[in-house]
């Protein structure tokens, strides 16, 4: 798919460049980050983004490098290619195209885009990798860990229009997405369709979205392969129904900044259904922005829904569900220091309490299905340097 997208970019770009010339723009961003986990038994992981590190200090969750090339062909057509490298769930750093699309303005208010696009599931999806644009080291994982599918291969429309003193954007989209699974395998969203809506008025903005898809999960780890067939069929398969909804708001008057978001994912197989919410408040004072974040995630349905009288099978189901239950609550205190015009240093301390029957956003060291690691208090110390260029 990506080869065909890049070929499409070339087909559009080269003739246009020859006939009208192209306005090229190059930009980039980078984060060097590290997170320290106080627990000896659990290691922090951004589900769907990185592989859990083996050490208590881990650079994988937040470190990223992105390079972007924008080309404009005349007044109505453009192309974007963005390559990023960061640790994947496979544990490698293979660069991949996070964006690779062409766009065309059908009217001054309506544009169409096709190719690899950001999946607009969250309020901050468009800037999820661009850490410099956020006050925090990372967006709150209690919400942004609910849906790990960061991009889609498909098509969308962007319609922008004034509504009184505000501006309204309607963003319907369709396509498919896939990501690797920890331990081996792949998860896929097929027949994905959704709509996001954003309203901006001065210092305030609000956004909401809803999407539905067919979810397939194929787990290929040796540990899953060794499970009884009845259980394996509940961990892997095709065509589960899935949906995702979110609503978020931001307010920024140049000194105070406030944001909050509520999201929910549902799936009738292979993964848990859950809700998450956060509220964040910060205040700029010169080059410094101290901030506070409260966040929580609740599980609505476990990943495996199996009633069995077999004690051995029941224990396996409980262990797997516990390892996939991200329910937790957290309090974060941090400060951002903009020490240069395009660079910021962030430091934050997070106190996490995982729920009973949940590992939260952590993976057990050694045995991912280990017992007795739920309902714990864990501290995280996170530091990052973010730059744009």
From TrEMBL:
> What is the name of this protein?
Porin
Leader sequence residues:
1-18
Under Gene3D superfamilies, the record lists:
Porin
Q: What is the lineage of its organism?
A: Bacteria, Pseudomonadati, Pseudomonadota, Betaproteobacteria, Rhodocyclales
Under InterPro entries, the record lists: Porin_dom_sf
The species this protein belongs to is Thauera mechernichensis
- Keyword Signal assigned to the entry: answer is yes
Q: What are the alphabetically sorted keywords of the record?
A: Signal
């Amino acid at each position: 798919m990506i080869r065909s997208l890049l070929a499409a970019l070339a087909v559009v770009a080269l003739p246009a460049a020859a006939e009208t010339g192209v306005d090229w723009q190059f930009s980039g961003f980078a984060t060097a980050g590290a997170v320290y986990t106080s627990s000896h038994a659990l290691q922090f992981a951004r589900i769907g983004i990185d592989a859990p590190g083996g050490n208590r200090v881990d650079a994988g969750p937040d470190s990223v490098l992105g390079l972007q090339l924008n080309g404009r062909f005349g007044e109505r057509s453009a192309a974007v290619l963005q390559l990023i490298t960061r640790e994947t769930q496979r544990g490698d750093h293979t660069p991949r195209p996070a964006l690779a699309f062409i766009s065309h303005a059908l009217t001054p208010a309506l544009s169409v885009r096709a190719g690899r696009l950001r999946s607009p599931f969250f309020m901050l999806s468009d800037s999820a990798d661009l850490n410099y644009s956020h006050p925090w080291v990372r967006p709150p994982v209690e919400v942004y860990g609910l849906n790990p599918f960061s991009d889609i291969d498909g098509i969308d429309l962007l319609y922008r229009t004034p509504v009184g003193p505000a501006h309204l954007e309607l963003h319907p989209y369709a396509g498919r997405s896939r990501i690797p699974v920890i331990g081996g395998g792949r998860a896929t969203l097929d027949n994905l369709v959704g709509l996001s809506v954003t309203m901006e008025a001065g210092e305030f903005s609000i956004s909401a979205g809803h999407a539905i898809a067919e979810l397939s999960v194929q787990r290929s780890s040796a540990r899953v392969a060794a499970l009884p067939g009845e259980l394996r069929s509940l961990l892997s398969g095709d065509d589960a129904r899935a949906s995702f909804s979110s609503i978020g708001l931001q307010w920024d008057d140049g000194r105070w900044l406030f944001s909050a978001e509520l999201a929910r994912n549902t799936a009738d197989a292979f993964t848990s259904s859950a809700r998450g919410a956060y509220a964040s408040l910060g205040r700029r004072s010169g080059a410094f922005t101290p901030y506070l974040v409260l966040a929580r995630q609740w599980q609505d349905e476990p990943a495996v829904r199996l009633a069995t009288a077999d004690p051995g099978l029941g224990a396996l189901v409980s262990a797997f569900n516990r390892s996939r239950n991200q329910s937790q609550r957290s309090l974060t205190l941090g400060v951002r220091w903009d020490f240069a015009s395009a660079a910021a240093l962030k430091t934050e301390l997070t106190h996490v309490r995982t729920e009973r029957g949940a590992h939260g956003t952590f993976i057990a060291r050694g045995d991912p299905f280990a017992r007795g690691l739920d309902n714990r208090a864990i501290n995280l110390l996170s530091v990052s340097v973010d730059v744009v260029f």
